[in-house]
């Protein structure tokens, strides 16, 4: 963040020692370190919140895009039909299984009605 080297820190430390004095310098350094730590934690917290919000927004966009597109099952079935129209899909198989049963029930009713 800041481009402070060893000599700059040494000069700041010597000036702080002269201005503050050797008796209060440890307490001031401890307080400054505490405030610096709080600032860093605050910045890290804000950064993680922003990253989390961006990830949530990206997920919402992806889900909305998927909801607008056709389902994968429909695409697969359409492709199967375009390749070989005679291939029975699971839906067609169910319809064929239901139709004979319905025909049998109708025949049974007609047979019972006739006597």
Structural class: mainly alpha
| Rough outline | rod-shaped
Note the run of SSEs as H and E: HHHH
Identify low-pLDDT runs. none
What number is the mean pLDDT?
A: 80
The biggest sheet amounts to: none
Extended strand count: 0
Which range does the strand content fall in?
A: under 5%
Q: Percent helix among the residues?
A: over 70%
**What distance lies between the first and last C-alpha atoms, to the nearest angstrom?**
97 Å
What does the radius of gyration come to?
38 Å
- Can you count the helices? 4
List keywords for this structure.
115 residues, mainly alpha, 4 helices, rod-shaped
Question: What do you see in this structure?
Answer:
The protein has helices at residues 6-20, 25-68, 72-83, 90-114. By secondary structure, it is mainly alpha-helical. The longest helix has 44 residues, at 25-68. It is rod-shaped, with a radius of gyration of 38 Å. The model has no long low-confidence stretch (mean pLDDT 80). The chain has a domain at 27-69. It contains four helices and no strands.
Short description:
This protein is mainly α and 115 residues long. It is built from 4 helices and no strands. Helix content is 83%, strand content 0%.
Task: Outline the secondary-structure elements.
Blueprint: H1 6-20, H2 25-68, H3 72-83, H4 90-114
